Amino acid sequence: MAINSIHENYIAEAENYHAAKNKRIRRPVSRLAVAAIIAACLFLGSVAAYAGAHLYEWTASMTFHDGTKVTVSENAFFKEIPDDVPVVCENECMMEMTRAEVEKTLGFGILHSPLSADSTVYNYSTAVNSDGKTVARVDLWCPSFITENGTKEINLLVSMLSVSAEEGYIYPFMEGTDAMGGKTYVGTYPLEQLQTQAVLYSSEDMPALLKAILVFDNVQYSFSTTQYTLDEFLDVLHTLTL
């Protein structure tokens, strides 16, 4: 990069250089200068590449339409995702899996509820890093995580960042992965059985919509419903378990 950035004037100067005109101590000085520049470039380049690859410490939060800012997780969260997990590229159809298949694929358990049927389908997708090989993020979309009498349902999105995730995949988790506008803060509720908390919010334009987001075991869970009351929704969240 340093070589490619040399100005044309310096290239012309080098071409016009004549040894007879520069016999004294210029040669060792210029060598030292060049060595110092190259060393500095290599060092700064290494630091930039290292810093640009990963963010190790961050806080996940959400900002609501009235300016309220609420912390979802005080600690950065990454997950050890096996190297051999299936890769679903962009614009490809998601892979349908049962919870047992998901857990076998990932090598760890995910939250579920006794209210959720064993036949519940989890739609699996991935995002890969710039190298096109390593997985940066895994998402599981479950549009009917819980259904009751065919009239009430709760949807679920499970999202996890690989320990190798690059900054571009981390930033959305820092600022809140829900891009819905007009978010209205409802409250933060402790989930004692999980030793974590859930941030609940709604929509300024759609008061019946209730959403909840929480982080457990370095995995982010987002729930949504339009048929449940706040108390009913909280009752469901308290049934979550591994």
SSE topology:
Blueprint: H1 8-15, H2 26-53, E1 60-63, E2 69-73, E3 95-97, H3 99-106, E4 122-128, E5 135-148, E6 152-161, H4 167-175, E7 183-191, E8 196-203, E9 210-216, E10 219-225, H5 230-237
Antiparallel strand pairs: 1-2, 3-4, 4-5, 5-6, 6-10, 7-8, 8-9, 9-10
Q: List SSEs in N-to-C order.
A: HHEEEHEEEHEEEEH
- What order do the strands of the largest sheet run in, or round the barrel if closed? 3-4-5-6-10-9-8-7
The biggest beta sheet reads: 8 strands, antiparallel
Average pLDDT confidence is 84
Low-pLDDT stretches are 1-11, 17-30, 32-52
For the record, give the distance between the C-alpha atoms at the N and C termini, rounded to a whole number: 50 Å
Report Rg: 26 Å
Work out the number of β strands: 10
Name the structural class.
alpha+beta
So how many helices?
5
Oligomer category: single chain
> Helical content, roughly?
25-40%
Beta-strand proportion: 25-35%
Quick recap of the structure?
This protein is an alpha+beta fold and 242 residues long. It has helices spanning 8-15, 26-53, 99-106, 167-175, 230-237, and strands at residues 60-63, 69-73, 95-97, 122-128, 135-148, 152-161, 183-191, 196-203, 210-216, 219-225.
3D structure, described in words:
With 242 residues, the chain is of the alpha+beta class. The chain is built from five helices and ten strands; from the N terminus they run H-H-E-E-E-H-E-E-E-H-E-E-E-E-H. It has an eight-stranded antiparallel sheet. A hairpin with a 2-residue loop joins strand 9 and strand 10. The two termini are 50 Å apart. The model is unreliable at 1-11, 17-30 and 32-52 (pLDDT under 50).
